[in-house]
Amino acid sequence: MKILIINGSPRRKGNISQMLNSMAEEAMAQGAEVEMIEAIKLNVRPCIGCMRCRSSHECSLPSDDAQMVVEKMRQCDALVIGAPCYWGNMPGVLKVLFDRMVYAMMDETPRGIPIPLQKGKRCVLVSTSTTPWPINILFHQSRGVIRALKEICHYSGFKTVATIEKGGTRNNTTLSDRERKKCVNAIRKITAHS
Predict the structure, then answer these.
(1) How far is CA 35 from CA 32, 53, 184, in A?
(2) Count H helices, E strands: the chain?
(3) What count of Cα atoms within 13 Å lies in the side-chain half-sphere of residue 121?
């Protein structure tokens, strides 16, 4: 089984990175092949909204790291995405990446009805927020990130098998044993179906 992990956090030692590293370790222990991509390290130009990719099924912009991620997504069996909350949504670097990959994630009928291109694959979504728990959920901080990622994954055909939200990261910079266990259990929901 090939698992692609996309880290949308710019912080190498932050909570998102810790959670995704725990998941990667568990997945490898379960025999999965894991590749992690850090969105902050990618060279991806913003989408210009030309819509040519809808008919050509490739981006009209000059080749950059978006095409590399597209190929890795096409080859993976499962996807894990982690993103901190920035103004109730995912960081811009991650949104730019998804904007550029839409042609590989979904097609559409002549009437504009979405056709998922990643159907049958599973995903896990992870988010954090400096806003303390449960306010991070009630005020749609980390919940806003999860909602946006779920929508992207749903229209792409991924089945979300687990979500993890952690609030209060400003004062809680390390993972507890309980949080690590959540990460392990989430990744097992993917590897159990390989």
Answers:
(1) 10, 26, 17
(2) 8, 7
(3) 25
